[in-house]
Amino acid sequence: MSEKFFPYAADAEESLSAEELQVLQRQYEREGPQVRVQTKFNYAWGLVKSNKKTDQQMGVYLLHEIYSEHSERKRECLYYLGIGYYKMGEYSDARMYIERLLALEPDNKQAKCLRKLIDDRVSRDGMIGLAVSGGAVALLGIAAAAFLRRSK
Question: Are 42 and 22 in contact (CB under 8 A)?
Answer without folding.
Answer: no
